[in-house]
Amino acid sequence: MPAKTKKTPSKAIETETEVAADMAVVVAETPSKPKSKTSKPSKKPSKRYQSISKGIEDRAYSVEEATTLVKKSASAKFDETVEAHFRLGIDPAQTAQQVRGNVQLPHGTGKKVRTLVFATGLDIEVALKAGATIADETVIASIEKGSIPFDLVLATPDAMPQIAKLARVLGVRGLMPNPRAGTVTTEIAETITARSQGLVDFKNDQALLHLGIGKASFTADQLKDNFVSVYEAIKAAKPAKTSGEYIRSATLTSTMGPAIKIDRESVK
Fold it and tell me: In Å, what is the CA distance from 81 to each residue of 30, 84, 116, 268?
């Protein structure tokens, strides 16, 4: 008789990592695709970009100068977003050296925040009155397919079971509700109002941190106020176990414009 083949139990494939944190689900990041062996030639900057860059010197500018320059460099046909970029003196491989928090921009972000809310009972009506979209079956099905036309996702604690199956797709886009970020809350109306008025989250990406601080249509003073608020919030979020210089560089740029270095001594 032929020998019986021994069956080996199939290994369970881990599709997502869920860690309970006050009913939040923290998702492991999707592994990045392997880089292609053939590298594409870098795209040459446009004549417009080169022309704008000529007006920016290779030096650090004061915050006042930088916000004036970034407005001048934003010459696209749409209202460009002004972004702040920071290089931090942290070891991103260390959990204790992650930088995250939120900050209220004095003059807002200049954009309408599209908010999705997972809620039950009376909180559904509260969210609708505050201008949010409720996560019904149609919206959930759309999210499962990868369509997420929202900037913010909130959830009440009792609605978290609804969102568990969406953890992977929301997590990789940084939209998974989390109590530490204030996006799992019973104060739906207050949270929607605060977010629409300029409360934004920030967290490091490796040793870098990027954040939109307004629009090119803002005045230079408004951009300065927003930048200073962000700078101070990042300073306050300094991990205890870091050593050496914490904020190593700061720059401003518009969506289509060149980077403008900022003299950190001018931030007051």
Answer: 28, 10, 23, 23
Q: What token pair was written down for 189?
A: 């109306």
pLDDT at 124: 95
pLDDT at 40: 60
CA–CA distance, 205 with 226 (Å, rounded to integer): 21
Distance CA 55, CA 252 (A): 15
Dig out the tokens for 178 from the structure: 């989390």
In what helix (H) or strand (E) does residue 101 lie, and over which residues does it extend? strand 100-104
Q: Which long-range contacts (CB under 8 A, 24 or more apart) does 140-145 make?
A: 140/166, 143/169, 143/170, 144/169
**What is the mean pLDDT, run by run of 10 residues, along the chain of 268 residues?**
48 36 40 51 71 82 95 91 97 93 94 94 94 93 92 94 90 90 93 93 94 96 97 95 92 94 90
Nearest C-alpha neighbor of 55 from the set 45, 44, 67, 70: 70
DSSP E strands, the chain = 20-21, 24-25, 81-88, 100-104, 115-118, 133-134, 152-155, 199-203, 208-215, 247-254, 260-261
- Tell which residue, 162, 248, 257, 263, has the closest CA to residue 204: 248
